[in-house]
Every structure is written in structure tokens, then in C-alpha cells.
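Internal ticket - ligand job 131, C2G:
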Amino acid sequence: MKKVITYGTFDLFHLGHLEILRRAKALGDYLVVAVSTDEFNSVKGKRCVYPYEHRSSIVQAIKYVDQVIAEDSWEQKRSDIINHKIDIFTMGDDWTGKFDDLADICEVIYLDRTKGISTTDLKANITNNSY
Ligand code: C2G
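stdout (C-alpha cells):
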């Protein structure tokens, strides 16, 4: 069984998130998704609309996702990959090169981002159009 892992905030879940999860799962047979906790997001300088409980529940409900774990730090990836016996680490290509150091313990694959959508744009859109 080929196991895949990916990481993210997944706030205001949108098609870009769905596409990366669909394609991540297609790389193997079992997909683990590490969802950033609210505490870690403040480290990343990100303020979320949805709290961790909501974001992780939504991701867990996606049919491509087999398991959700919490992402509390930048440094946990290596131990996650070892502990969960991961074969492939994948992220959107806005992260290209950033995690190549993991290539000694798993395959590292960067997938094209879905064009034209981001949580940041969604927030701006909602604010400017005050729906
Ligand atoms: N993504 C995508 N296309 C978009 C938007 C996002 O493919 N239009 C991908 C990103 O490349 C990432 C995943 O969806 O792989 C989650 O994106 P975010 O929730 O923005 O996560 P991020 O802030 O990049 O956190 O340790 C890694 C970090 O937790 C990644």
C-alpha cells in the first residue's frame, strides 16, 4: 500500500484544496493530511476564518482523505513521514524546493496549484462585495 502525505491550512475550503487532495490521493492508495492547528497558523502569520476543529472535520469528510493529523510545527514532517511509513510527500508547487530535504526518506512531489483561486482572494472578494 503506497501512503501519501500532504500539509495545509485548508481554510474556507475551495476547489484548489479539493484538487490537490484528489491528485495527492491519485499518487498512491492512502492519503494522510496534516491540517495546521490554529496555534501553528499564528506561527505562519495566518489568521483563519474557520477554527481547526472545522477545518479538520471538513478535510476528514473529503472522500480522497483517509486520515487527518494535526500540524503543530514546521519540523514535524520528517517524524510524520517515518512514523506513518509514508512513501510520497506532496505539496502544491508554491512550495517547490522547500521540502527537498525530505527526499532521503520519501519521494517528494510538487503538484501544480489550481489557478485563479485562493483563500486570500476569497476573503478579499467577500469583503469588497459585502455579500
Ligand atoms: N493549493 C492549490 N491550489 C490553490 C490553493 C492551494 O493547489 N489554488 C494547495 C497549496 O499549494 C497547498 C494546499 O493547497 O499544497 C493547502 O494550501 P493552504 O491551505 O494555503 O496551506 P499552506 O498555507 O500552503 O500550508 O507545512 C506546510 C504548510 O502547512 C502549508
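Auto-summary: Residues 3-127 form a domain with the Rossmann fold fold (CATH 3.40.50.620). The mean pLDDT is 96.
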